[in-house]
Amino acid sequence: MTFTVEVLDNHALNVLLELEQMHVIRLSRQQTKPSAGPVKKKEFKATRLDTRGFKFNREEANER
Questions:
Q1: In sequence order, what DSSP letters do the residues of 30-44 get, joined into one string?
Q2: Confidence bin at 18 (pLDDT 50/70/90)
């Protein structure tokens, strides 16, 4: 009987390896690359502020 299992946790992998050492199960290892799926184009939205002529007033900022 054959099952395909995707191991997601190291603890689960260790349990399976121990069962294999006890000759309860036989593991056949296949390295598969995880599918990245379709790559989404990232959209970056930014705001542009015109700060020309702005003078920072420290006293006014400290009042808040």
A1: ---PPP--SPPPP--
A2: very high
